[in-house]
Amino acid sequence: MNKAILTPANVLLAVLLFVAFAQMTAVYLLMQTPWTGINAVAGTLPDTVVVESIDADSPAAGKLSVGEVLTGVQTAQGLLKLAPLLYDFPPLSPATFAQLDAFYQRQATLHRAFTDPVGVTFVTVTGENVTLTPLLYTPLSALPLTFWLLSLINLISPLVGVLVWTYRPNQQASALLLMHGLFYYLFVMGGVCVVASEFYLPPEILQQVLLLQVAGIGIAAPLMVLILCYAPSPLVRGNWLLWLTLGGSALTIVNYHYHWFESPGHMYYSQHPLIYIGASIAIILQWRRTRQQPVERAALLVLATSFMLPSTLIVAIHVIPILFGKLPLVGNTIILMLFLLIAVGLAVGILRYRLFDIEFWWLKSLLWLLGGCLVAAIDLSVTALFQLSDSYALGISVIIAGFLYFPLRQWLLGKVIPAEKQNLQDFLPAFSSSLSDAVSQDTFEQRWLESLQQRFHPLHLEPLPETITHTQLSDNGLHLQIPSLDNTRSYRLSGKQRAARLFHKTDVKNTESLLTVARMASNASEMRQQAIMEERRRIMHDLHDSLGSKLLTLTHQLPDPNHKESAKQALMTLRDTIRLSLKTTPLRLEDHLADWRAEIAERADAAGVTLHWQQTGDASIHALTPKLVLEITQLLRETVSNALKHAAPAQLSLRFQMDASTLQILVGNDGRVSDPATWKAGTGLGSIQTRIARLGGDVRFELRDKPKLHNRVVLRIPLI
């Protein structure tokens, strides 16, 4: 079919025309029935009805009174009972064609009595005969309010089908739901004709009404099973299952009308348990297919719950009693409402509306059903075992159910609800502890990411360049987008609990609370660091102005070159201490290697010593703290100073070896060499050993004979 024709407006117009035609057909059929103006309900006495109301301008006005109890009508064959009233009787309940023909025959007998030219004679419970002449046709204004309300309320089903198809026109499940809505409305129109009847329907009209019901529900019910076969993911390919189902349904409808062959058990209702079983099988297959697919699994929960809960009630209180030859436990109106709930629930599942709420919604539905079934089961057991009255049995059942239900509810909550949806207070101690040792913005950000991982166990955590102000859900709860602490970027968490669950609005609320706590801690730490840095700047400024100026003066005034060099080294150390102490971010190792080389080369050149410099490993991967840079700088100065001062070498070699976790520095010289075991521990050696121990490293003093005899100092410094 041309897609230009299947626009949402055209489809909506076609559905409204279909609904209007079905509505007018139902109105026409009801207006062809005789009318007395009596509104009757089932009486408390067996086989009686009670006059509940009488229209003022009706044939019964002034002849019968409200509250009068009727036993039946007089016919040529004698008294014909009015109970059960047609609107309170399931017209599809006859199990065999013979019972259906007898049902039609009863309606025909009532029709002859109500269309008798001399009038219809009602017999009251007191034996009084009241004769009145019904109108041959029911006025439009006399159609009961129930007819219009049910017609209007059940209009929701086809309109919901149009809505879902409009939003998902290319999805097979949405097209099936639209078809379901149309055929369901046919079923409804047949049902409301029965509900709106006074005492009976003429047999020829009743046949048309029942055909509408059989055709409507005969196709609408299997379509619900087909929806479960195609949503949330298709279990079969192509349309063969659709055509097979429609063919089987058409055969059932034609067989019901022409009485070809009887199904075992019940000629019509035998198929409904099969439909229920088919839907259950489809749900089980979908459950297996949607493993590790949280969005599809949540959509399946909506679809399955929407179908299984109302369908279970329909089968339990309507279908099973009829299959056992009993009257159903509820009237036709409640059954229509349950079918409507199924349609609305399927629409929500196909549209995937607020899937992140499904865990709680599904659990509440399960608890509600469990509570009701528990009370009912205990009530029946107490009544059967102890032969108590209904009021006593119900009271005892509620008390027993309370003692059983609430512990069972708490156990179920603990099993079903994941830990991160429980009290946030349980998570706060570990969260606060993770933030307690963070001192920089980068560390706080890293702790924030670790906490998110611990809280939600996402399948993926991806940094995003865009900024957001609040935590957001996306893709039906598959993703949770969270701001960074400094609000310069955001993070997207995908697949909660390793893709086993969807994120929920409670996760948004809890994450916002954790974000507030983390930002408060980060801001407090930042303010504290700023205060420390400000005080450090003041102290360093004072040191530079006082001690620094004096050292600078000494470098110019001291006559001894060694003393002058010591003052110069002290001044450089002071300046490095001031400069590095004011740094708050990690420093690159490769930058400081260049600085160290330039300084040592200058000192070697001033001493007339040849410098050999080597580097192995990737220095760009290492970032050092300012404190570590300062300590390494001091180690190098003292080691080089010892070599230049005490060994008087011709050549000085430095080799830097770097791997993923360690920096090794080898400082060699070819000057006055000696066995390190004979060295006396002085200020220089002691300072080197103290500094290297403070860094968690070690130092070795070696005498090497290759390529020629020389001393070597090996410094090993951990970088992690």
Per DSSP, the total helix count is 20
Beta-strand share of residues: 5-15%
N/C terminus separation: 69 Å
Identify the overall geometry.
rod-shaped
What's the story with the biggest beta sheet?
6 strands, antiparallel
Report the structural category: alpha+beta
Which stretches are poorly predicted, pLDDT < 50 over at least 5 residues?
Answer: none
Number of strand segments: 17
Give the mean pLDDT: 83
Concise summary:
GO terms for molecular function: protein histidine kinase activity. The protein has 20 helices and 17 strands. With 720 residues, the protein is α+β, with helices and mostly antiparallel strands.
Structure notes:
There is one protein chain. The chain is of the alpha+beta class and 720 residues long. 58% of the residues lie in helices and 13% in strands. It is built from 20 helices and 17 strands. Strands 1, 2, 3, 4, 5 and 6 form a 6-stranded antiparallel sheet that branches. Keywords: Kinase, Membrane, Transferase, Transmembrane, Transmembrane helix, Two-component regulatory system. This is histidine kinase. It comes from Thiothrix unzii. InterPro entries: HATPase_C_sf, Sensor_HK_TwoCompSys.
